[in-house]
Structure formats: structure tokens, C-alpha cells
Amino acid sequence: MTTAVEGKTTDTFPEKSTLGQRLMSVDALRGFDMFWIIGADSLVYALHRMRENKTTNFLAYELDHADWEGFHFYDLIFPLFVFIMGVSLVFSLTKTIQNHGRPQAVKRVFIRSILLFALGIIYSGGFSHAWPDIRLMGVLNRIALAYFFGGMLFCFCKPRTLVAICVSLLLGYWALLAFTPIRNIQLERSNLAQLAEQAGDSDTATLFSQPGVIRPGNPAWLATEKMFYSTTNHIAGKDAVATNIIVSDAVTNYVASKY
């Protein structure tokens, strides 16, 4: 734009809008997380197999899930992605609400959540398995649910309300961990094989003593579910430490992802 100042002609330009700018720190953190999600751990495993030493032993240890309590670096990859998603939606939904209104922001959350949930089902095999063996709670599905509820809360709740909801969720989760009875069984290969041997089922014990991936519907998966649901002894609170986790679906998903 051209303006005249004391008889002189000068060119002035509007200030660069901050609405189109991206937060570099969030993009960098997202890229770091995606680097591991897309399979950088396979590179570390390959190096460990090629030449085992203290460094590769440490990296291989950190790139494997903790058995039941504590955490390794690998256990932080999924929570980190959910954290990044929460940070990002604050900026994206704020911009959408300011420019197009709250209804458009809600529509955006709905559409993205549905698409992401559908992609999660397709990634896990779609409807190639008969119900109830269709996997509905894979990683992408959980991210979709987290995005949906987080987005809805952000669109309709004030900061104080969000803080109260956050505290309530943490306390509620603690209460579930502390007081909900769970089945007293460790879903690890060695333990499942030992339990099968004690029951005189050598065929099932062999399933867990042999290497291989446990996937929904295969014999090892079905044997795991049978042993889990046939367990009648329940424990809760401190007695349940390092023994199990609460939700049975999360248990079976954990076994599939680890082995």
C-alpha cells in the first residue's frame, strides 16, 4: 500500500498475521514422536542384533514396554502423542471459534474424530473378523476418543471447569486402580505357559513357549482370553500391584502389542 508522508511517497505493508504462524516447538515435538511411531525402534533393534554392547542393550531396554509397573521410554510415545494433540487443539479450535464460530469448531471435532476412529478400525483389519473379534479400541481409536472429548470440553467449558474435570478424572482413575477388584492373573508368556502346564494342558503351554505374534483370533490369543476369563480369584488395591491392570480389553491389547 502506498501512502504520502510530508510530500514523500512510501510503501507500507500490513503486519504479518500471527494466525497463520505455527508453533515450531510443537511441530518439532510432533516430528520427534512420529519418528518413533513410524518405526525408528526397528532400526535400534536391528543395530542391537548386529552388534550387542552396553549402548544397544540400554536402547533396546528403553524401547520395550515395562512389564507391569514403572515405565520405559517406549511407554511414553503414545501418551506424548495424546499430549501434543491436546496442545494443538487449543490453538486450532481457538482459531476456528474466532474466525467461524463455535458450531463450526464442533463440526470439525466431530468429523475428525469419526474419520480417525474409522481409520483405526480399518488399520486393525476392518470387518474381516466376525463380532466380537473386531478390534474397536486400537491406538488410533483411542486417540479419536481423546480428541473428541477433549475438543468438546474445550469448546464448551471454561478454564476453571476444565481444571475441575481434570482433577476429577485423575481422582476417579486412582479410585479405580485402588478399589476395583481385578482377576489375579499375569498375562505374560512365561506365566501363562506355567499355568497351562499346571492345569495339564501341554498344547496350550506350547503356544506360549514358542515365539510368534499374538493377534486377535489366533490360537494363542483365544487361549489367553480363555485363561483370563476363567480366573475366579480377584484382588484389589495394594495386593494387585504388578499383577494386572483394570480393563480386560486393555489387558488383551497390551499382550498383542508386546508380543
Structural commentary:
- It is globular, with a radius of gyration of 25 Å.
- α7 packs antiparallel against α8.
- The chain has a two-stranded antiparallel ribbon. The chain has a two-stranded antiparallel ribbon with strand order 3-4.
- The protein starts with a strand and ends with a helix.
- It has helices at residues 24-50, 54-62, 77-100, 102-123, 139-156, 159-179, 189-198, 202-209, 219-229, 248-258; strands at residues 2-5, 8-11, 182-183, 234-235.
- The protein is mostly helical and 259 residues long.
- It has 10 helices and 4 strands; from the N terminus they run ββααααααβαααβα.
Q: How are the SSEs placed, and which strands pair?
A:
Elements (H helix, E strand, L loop, with lengths): L1 E4 L2 E4 L12 H27 L3 H9 L14 H24 L1 H22 L15 H18 L2 H21 L2 E2 L5 H10 L3 H8 L9 H11 L4 E2 L12 H11 L1
Antiparallel strand pairs: 1-2, 3-4
Which descriptors would you attach to this protein?
10 helices, 4 strands, single chain, mainly alpha
Outline of this structure?
The chain is mainly α. The protein has ten helices and four strands; from the N terminus they run ββααααααβαααβα.
- Give me the secondary-structure category: mainly alpha
Question: Which term fits the overall shape?
Answer: globular
Helix content: 55-70%
The neighbouring-strand order within the major sheet is: 1-2
Major β-sheet, in short?
2 strands, antiparallel
Strand content: under 5%
Mean pLDDT: 78
Q: pLDDT under 50 segments (min length 5)? A: 7-19, 244-259
Q: Tell me the Rg in angstroms.
A: 25 Å
The count of β-strands is: 4
- CA(first)-CA(last) distance: 64 Å
What is the succession of H and E elements? EEHHHHHHEHHHEH
- Number of helical regions: 10
